[in-house]
Amino acid sequence: RERVRAMFYHAYEHYLESAFPYDELRPLTCDGQDTWGSFSLTLIDALDTLLILGNVSEFQRVVSVLQEGVDFDIDVNASVFETNIRVVGGLLSAHLLSKKAGVEVEAGWPCSGPLLRMAEEAARKLLPAFQTPTGMPYGTVNLLHGVNAGETPVTCTAGIGTFIVEFATLSHLTGDPVFEDVARKALKALWKNRSEIGLVGNHIDVVTAKWVAQDAGIGAGVDSYFEYLVKGAILLQDRELMSMFLEYNKAIKNYTKFDDWYLWVQMYKGTVSMPVFQSLEAYWPGLQSLIGDVDNAMRTFLNYYTVWKQFGGLPEFYNIPQGYTVDKREGYPLRPELIESAMYLYRATRDPTLLELGRDAVESIEKISKVDCGFATIKDLRDHRLDNRMESFFLAETVKYLYLLFDPDNFIHNDGSVFDVVITPYGECVLNAGGYVFNTEAHPIDPAALHCCRKRKEEQWEVEDLMREFYSLKKNKKFTFKRASDHGEGESAKDPEDATSEKGGEKRNSKKSSHSLLSCPSQSFNSKLAVLGQVFLDNT
User: Fold this and answer.
1) Which of 33, 66, 30, 71 minimizes the C-alpha distance to 47?
2) For residues 217 and 265, is the Cβ–Cβ distance under 8 A?
3) What one-character DSSP code corresponds to residue 412?
4) Is 440 annotated as belonging to a binding site?
């Protein structure tokens, strides 16, 4: 753990010294470059890692630097996907961790705050990309002018389906539903356009919904779409998203899985198109662990680990039958995915093999890629030539997951035994109780925060009705409650256990006796009145 901490500071301090305010450090020439849009990206990406390492003073300093220095009103063409996962995700995570880091927060926090406003501003710059006939977004947007005339309509699947975690969080915190709405519409458009055998391809035309690249797999171009169906389902307690993933999971096992490897197949026929393992696929065992499929996850993880041991890193592409790298894809840009899976699986199994992978990763990265000014991308794992780049995800993800693998007592691993209670304008809410959901750039989102800023009219009306009836009790001893449906019950008032699902016109009602929040069954007042879990018996 201490070696990982030292790795972080070696890279971080050289970024500040040689590259800030550029996006990324160039470690071989000790200078900086803008890559994804000129946001001081490495600083935003590394912010929550600082807190996970326990450095509250630097976290506070960086928060004030970002507030003064980052401007999204710039004439820059930015990747919609990358800006969302790195900038919006990084700012949201830092916003929700601010109080824990000792930052003076506003009275309305977590429903308001400077970092939340920055995240919202960045996300609003991305919204023009979603204005397509299908609801699937363009891949690139100009932050000042919106989508450029002549912009290609071809976007990768992940670039369409990787918004729900950040955008739903934004909608819940700000009260503006537009973000979650566009993210859901895009997810559902991909689902609607899956093939008859249940697979999605790699790239699609967002105007016509025609598949341009028809390779189906779990790796590059598709990966985080599947990840966000699972994480969105967990974050939002959303059964529909989870059932979509489980359907895909069946098709993936049927058509792409061979001996605990996953290959690429033609999306309509299921025939193998590339017998290749990509380093980006190494997130999959971690994702399997999130749905409880730990045995399959471990078997696949061990396959991937053999590749790591062969090269001291994961090449971008690995030809499975030949057992070697693929031409022009021999590099390792210090990606986190295998370490991420090790961190999840270690939480699930405590298998010491996973710690060995962590140790091997520390050894490899220090031995091969450490240079005077940071850590350099490995251009070729066969001869260990380096490239003059240190991606921001090295500090956001690789180092973070390594540290969390070796730090079982970190606050991120909280099991709910400790928590904070915060008073918001909408009542009390619990925060920092654990269960963090990492976005695909390893920015942890506190799922409890999504319940802090509810200002649903339906609930407000019901409370008002109850209060009115309470005060008119003396005049009128007999009355019944209004049901929530009188007001058109909002989704926030639904109990996931009590959901009514409609499929093919069929209605299925869960027969549990629990009722939605604030929608009590009709009964006389003096038998019982229950509001938000507080029971008032008739002698009170």
Assistant:
1) 66
2) yes
3) G
4) yes
Q: What angle do CA 522, 527, 528 make, to 5 degrees?
A: 75
Task: Name which of 502, 470, 500, 503 is nearest 485 in CA terms.
Answer: 500
Q: How far apart are CA 87 and CA 42, in angstroms?
A: 10
CB contact at 8 A, 44 and 90: yes
> What letter would DSSP give residue 434?
S
C-alpha to C-alpha distances, 150 to 138, 156, 385, nearest whole angstrom: 11, 18, 38
**Amino acid letter, 322:** Q
> CA–CA separation, 296 vs 283, rounded Å?
13
Separation CA 92–CA 166 (nearest Å): 8
Per DSSP (E only), the strands in 484-523 are 500-503, 506-509
Q: Which active-site residues does the annotation give? A: 82, 223, 316, 337
Of 81, 58, 66, the closest CA to residue 115 belongs to 66
Q: Which residues of the chain have pLDDT under 70?
A: 455-540
| Amino acid type, 231 | K
- Pairwise CA distance, residues 40 & 32, whole Å: 10
State the residue for tokens 């790239």: 203
Q: Domains of the chain (ranges plus CATH)?
A: 1-456 (1.50.10.10)
At residue 125, the pLDDT reads: 98
Exposed, middle or buried: residue 421 (CB in 10 Å: 0-12, 13-18, 19+)? Answer: exposed
Q: What percent of the chain has pLDDT over 70?
A: 84
- Asked if residues 439 and 93 have their Cβ atoms less than 8 Å apart, the reply is yes
CB atoms within 10 A of CB 528: 12
Question: For residue 30, which of 41, 44, 16, 49 has the smallest C-alpha distance?
Answer: 16
In the three-class reduction of DSSP (H, G, I as helix; E, B as strand; rest coil), residue 294 is classed as helix
- For residue 476, the model assigns a pLDDT of 54
> CA angle 387-388-389, nearest 5°?
95
Interstrand relation of 257-258 and 385-386 (parallel, antiparallel or unpaired) = unpaired
Tracing tokens 């807190």 back to the chain, one arrives at 51
All residues at 6 or more sequence positions from 22 whose CB lies less than 8 Å from its CB, including other chains: 31, 32, 33, 34, 38, 40
Q: What is the pLDDT of residue 459?
A: 57
Prediction pTM value:
0.85
Residue 530 CA to residue 519 CA, distance in Å, equals 10
Residue with tokens 């989870």: 242
Please check whether residue 170 is in contact with residue 179, taking contact to mean a CB–CB distance below 8 angstroms. yes
- State the pLDDT at residue 538: 46
Q: Which residue in 268, 273, 226, 263 sits closest to 248, CA to CA?
A: 226
* Amino acid in position 488: G
- Report residue 316: phi and psi, to 5°: -55, -45
Structure-block tokens of residue 345: 């699986």
